[in-house]
Amino acid sequence: MSTENGGTPVRPDLPPPDAPPAADPVPPAVPPAEPSWRTEPPATPPTVTEPTTSRWSAEPPPPPAQPSWGSGGPGDPGSGSGGGWGSSPGGQPPASGKRGMGGVVAAVLAAALLAGGIGGGIGYWAAERGDDSTSSTPITTSGDSQKIENPPGSVAAIADKALQSVVTIEARGASDQEGGTGTGFVYDKEGHILTNNHVVASAANGGKLSATFSNGRTYNAEVVGRAQGYDVAVVKLTDAGDAKLTPLPLGDSAAIDVGDQTIAIGAPFGLSGTVTTGIISAKNRPVASGDGQGDSNSYMSAIQTDASINPGNSGGPLLDSQGRVVGINSAIQTTGSGEFGGQGGSIGLGFAIPINQARWVADTLIKTGEPVYAVIGVQVDMSYQGQGARVTDAASGADAAVTPGGPADKAGIKPGDVITKVDDTVIDSGPTLIGQLWTHRPGDEVKVTYERGGKEHTVTVTLGEFKGDR
């Protein structure tokens, strides 16, 4: 995100041509050079960062080179073979990024100091010119000053209503040495808040969580459930008896079209209540993101948007033109390392988890406290560089290449087969396969096309399930 202060000094009226020149006018203050807050991780598979407090990498295929968690939104998709997510989610629960709160605070302070410096310089110059010049006549409009009402459906009207239901989440680890800020939104009247797993991961085991509304009221919160693979989490306010909870309306992410208008709301770099706009740039974009250490990765078939999303936006809503949530902002593609906390900012490539998927995950977490994943029962070779997702030739650890008696085994899929399509979706990498499978639920039937020995085969697979994050 660029925090450039776009203010341009407003010059006072110049004196009339026949007026004597002002004595020694003080030249205008030159606004200080502003820091650039843009940059962050691409790589072979593009590095995407989560708009919150850690560093993330998200990458359309091939398998991602481990990125860093963004504030920002299983296995190491970028190395080795045998990514366990093909058969069941792998990896340990996310170890949240160690980006401290200092990065967010520094960003806010930098913006405040720049605004104050420029404003002070302009004010002093204007006062000096006013004292020395002969006269100036301010031009005013007639009539009473009235607030312009925003028409229904306008960005301003949608934002005004939605902001009341969006919260800034602060997470602190048990040691108070890690954590950061992210975003969430009211999911129901019971006080559940929907956000990203990587936003709250640092506080999940003995840490502290708080949620601050746009009116400044802050409430404590606790984790209800987390789904590392989906990068979805539900937290609940614990002391919000006096809170006015208005759930955001949920849309249908399956009904969106490329080119549709979008509105993103969040707390980029800790700047709560920030609203940006854009369009749906693409649908079903394969994205993998992780903590950069290979032990906590997430996969999604994402909504791509050019609405500005930055570290701190993770977990915030992506709205359509009617103010309905169609996605949860989760990751961004950037160009390099940023100045604040090692994170970069928006270059117009943001990724959101489709709300249809997130809603099912959230309801499952609220009901049972643990995630459920749709699986086919194979180990995917994440080092494979060809087109498709290759089933490993040999077992990886305790997992067989093809789970005996599992969905793929029953359908006749064998080690070494290369999966090229799921239904009508082309599969070009392991992460794409996993992300596409996770748009389904256990028990769904899908058509899987694979190649073996140069020949193509298509079979029907009934998806199995895996509970929890391993």
UniProtKB/TrEMBL annotation:
Residue ranges of the region described as Disordered: 1-100, 130-151
Biased composition (Low complexity): 46-58, 133-145
Keywords for this protein: Hydrolase, Membrane, Protease, Transmembrane, Transmembrane helix
Segments traversing the membrane: 104-127
SMART domains linked: PDZ (SM00228)
Matching SUPFAM superfamilies: PDZ domain-like (SSF50156), Trypsin-like serine proteases (SSF50494)
GO biological process, one term: proteolysis
Bias (Pro residues): 12-34
Domain (PDZ): residue spans on this chain: 374-454
Biased composition (Gly residues): 70-89
Domain of life the protein comes from: Bacteria
GO molecular function: serine-type endopeptidase activity
Matches recorded under PANTHER family: PEPTIDASE S12, PROTEASE DO-LIKE 8, CHLOROPLASTIC
Similarity section: Belongs to the peptidase S1C family.
Name of the protein described by the UniProt record: PDZ domain-containing protein
Species classification: Bacteria, Bacillati, Actinomycetota, Actinomycetes, Kitasatosporales
